[in-house]
Design brief:
This protein has 321 residues and is of the alpha/beta class. Helix content is 42%, strand content 15%. β3 and β4 form a beta hairpin. It is globular.
Amino acid sequence: MTTPEQGTPPSTLHVARGIDAMTGNLERVVVGKRPELELAVAVLLAGGHLLLQDVPGVGKTVLARALARSIGGTFKRVQATPDLLPSDITGGMVYDAGRGTLRFVPGPVFANVVLADELNRATPRTQAAFLEAMGEAQVSVEGTAYPLPQPFFLIATLNPMEHHGTYPLPEGQLDRFLVSMSLGYPRLDDEVEVIVRQQLTHPLDSLHPVVTPAEVLSWQREVRAVRVDRSLMSYTAEIVAATRTHPEVALGASPRASVGLVRLAQAWALQDGREFVLPDDIKRLAPHALAHRLMVRSRTVSAVAVVEDILSGTPVPVRSQ
C-alpha cells in the first residue's frame, strides 16, 4: 500500500495506521505474503467473507487464527467431513434436566472469526448451514433467530476439486464470498524464515491483539463513508454486467457482486489512507471479487482470464474530485 498523502483527514490517517499495525501483526506469522494479507484485511473491513482455494500446508489456518488474535476476537474452527451435520455448525436445542426445559447451545459458528476448513468435503446440506450466517449474521434454530458475535468473519478453505471426496460449492454459496484468493507456496527465502521462526515455538503463541472487535466495527463503518464517484459505480456495474454476456461465460456475476466490489474498493482505499475510491482500486480487486462467481464454458479458459479480458475492454472513467 502507498503512504497516505499530506492533507489526509486525521481520522482517516489514524484508521489507516491502525489497519497497517494489524497487517504488520499478521506478518509475524504469515511470512512474505503482504499483498495477500492486505486483501484479507480488506475483506474483513468490507464486512465480507473470504474463500481460500489452496493446497494444504501453506498457512490458511494460521492466517485465520492470527486474524482472530490480532483483533482480540474469538476463534472457532470447523473441520468439514462428509458426516458433519448442520447442527454441528449452528448448534441446537438441548434438554436442561435441572430446569426441565430445552435451551439453545451455540455451535462453533458463534465466534468473531470462523474457519470452515475444507468446506467442500461437507455435504451440500451442511454447506448450506453457513448461508444464513454469511448473509444475515445470524442462525435460526427451531424458529428462533440467534445473532452472531460482531464482527463476524468466515474464512472457508477448499481442497482442489481433483481430490477425492469433495462436493462442489453451489453458485449461490460461492456468490456469498466477497473474495477468493490463494496464499500459494512461499519463496525459498521466506520458507527458510518460516523454519527459523518455528524452531522453538510457533509465532502464534506470542501473538497479541493490536486492535479490539469494537475498533474493527468502527472501521467497517468508516469504510461505508469512503467516497465513491457515481462514474465508478457505473464502471463497476458495466464490468459485472459484461460477465453475463461474455461468450466464454455460462453464468455471470450477480448484482451482489457489484455491491461487494464497490465495498471492497472502499475498504482498500481506507486501508491506503484515502477517503475516496480510484478506478485502479476497482481494476485491481475485480479479479479477486468476480472470478470465483463465474461459470465458464470451457476448461481451457480461466475465470480470471475472462475478468481480465473484460477489464481491458471496459473504458475507465475519468476521475472527478
